[in-house]
């Protein structure tokens, strides 16, 4: 049964035929031709050498074992839902999404379709406004005084022409309906522009007015490359005018209103531009504002994003931890920035994450610091980032050093530190820091225990090592539970691995397996040639399907959702991707001989055991039949002994 809201299978098949995975992956991975496939550095982990293999239909990483088709590539890379990935791919491939493509069976689902269609229109409208209006105003605004002021201001902030283009910096003029007129002339949908905050109905006169005016504009581009809104910084002359007029209330920064398309709690400015560098370095630097992102990016620190004037949220952390192993908080060096850093650290602790900080010295803002002396300060900043430290450890040290000579301050410091440790949901990290408090800082265990007992989170870790109770070897926290902990399957042995990788290349080597199958009993399938139980089950299933191995070759993406272990899936994918080389046929013949020998030996033991349970005097015919089968097998084993027992006997 299809999940609610999913596209029809027929339309999904049409979409996959209309777009090449190689083309889609090339937008995010530098791919180079290698035989009959393309290779590049995996976008799903910190790949140091090309291990990511791609062909028209599926991808596979020999390093992290990620695999899938073009739709799963989009969902995993961008964190999209299935429907969102399909919509993005349809737009790339210029494939229409008719209402019939959705499996809509209710009024609610039809409303969902209409809502998605409006969001797509809003995205296209934002792109149009960003590139054709705001950005063009900035680049080609001529002698317009306000546009010239915007260019002068951006130049003064040290932003290069390349960064202006990379981040699509624009400007909104002073005319109250300039964008409205532009959209009207372009016959753009004004109802969508109103709904998503580009224009608003005027209360003072007929028509609409522009939401953004007299501001430098920064398009808010999400990880999918969609302009989901705008952020505007008021121009200096307008800011000065507002200070002199108490009735003129103009916030320094103004964002697009929240909608299904733009949510500040989930949005990170610069993530679209920074994502490749974040994956490459497995590290992200978190700053406060637009200019900080652009300045650091310009200085060579391309793994930088900003929270756009809002506090760090759980949603932000979920997004970042999918991309990076380390998050460095680099907020402004003023009181507000320091307070925000501590709050970010605490949010990370609750999620079991250790956030990092740097020893930042100099101007308050990172972009101001880089502007003062670009060459020298870039070197300093790189050294500080390379030496990033856990914020929790730094905060503990700061609190204890500041309270070294004052008993009351020390008491408050211990309370604060205990509060942080009780937040930290990683029991190992928490335990190590409690030990450090006791041993390095000589905080009495009783002081920690008396506070920890209120929350109960540190009771198990506050005792010195020698006094701690021995932990049970049973990892199940419920002593009354009979459920065994989940087991990871054992690695597949080399012989089974290699034989299976020949089998999945059925187009090239199928005839050898067909000949080998003739030497088995009628009831046996090719599965008996393997020792691994999971492989046996999978091969038996494939053998029963007339199109099994052919389908595997033509549409390997069927493996993505197959109910098999990751270990087996990886072996099969590697086999499909390996190229045939001279000598493979001879190698396979020897392996098949050995596999037949092993299967006959197992069958011989089964016959011998079965014979031992029969009384010859009671069932003469059955005993004679089994005896004859046993003797035939012994002759076969003798004939094949020379084929497998010499140089190949050690290939386990």
Give a brief outline of the structure.
Helix content is 52%, strand content 9%. With 652 residues, the protein is an alpha+beta fold.
How many beta-strand runs? 16
Mean pLDDT: 82
**Percent in helix:** 40-55%
Instruction: Classify the beta-strand content into a percent band.
Output: 5-15%
Largest sheet geometry: 5 strands, antiparallel
**Spatial extent as radius of gyration:** 33 Å
Structural class, from secondary structure content? alpha+beta
Describe this structure in words.
The chain is of the alpha+beta class and 652 residues long. The strands form five sheets. It has a five-stranded antiparallel beta sheet with strand order 1-2-3-4-5. Strands 6-9-10-11 form a four-stranded antiparallel beta sheet. Strands 13-12-14 form a three-stranded parallel beta sheet. The chain is built from 27 helices and 16 strands. Helix 18 crosses helix 20, helix 21 (494-503) crosses helix 25 and helix 22 (506-517) packs parallel to helix 26. 52% of the residues lie in helices and 9% in strands. Residues 1-5, 450-487 and 646-652 have low confidence and may be disordered. Strand 7 (199-201) and strand 8 form a beta hairpin.
How do the strands and helices of this protein lay out in sequence?
Layout: H1 9-18, H2 21-26, E1 32-34, E2 37-40, E3 52-54, E4 59-61, E5 67-68, H3 70-78, H4 82-93, H5 107-140, H6 145-156, H7 161-166, E6 170-172, H8 178-185, H9 190-195, E7 199-201, E8 208-210, E9 215-221, E10 227-234, H10 236-244, E11 253-255, H11 271-281, E12 283-287, H12 290-298, E13 304-306, H13 314-323, E14 326-329, H14 335-350, E15 356-357, H15 366-372, H16 374-386, E16 389-390, H17 391-402, H18 407-423, H19 427-439, H20 445-455, H21 494-503, H22 506-517, H23 533-544, H24 548-554, H25 566-577, H26 584-612, H27 620-644
Parallel strand pairs: 12-13, 12-14
Antiparallel strand pairs: 1-2, 2-3, 3-4, 4-5, 6-9, 7-8, 9-10, 10-11, 15-16
Helix pairs in contact: 3-4, 12-15, 15-16, 17-18, 18-20, 21-25, 22-26, 26-27
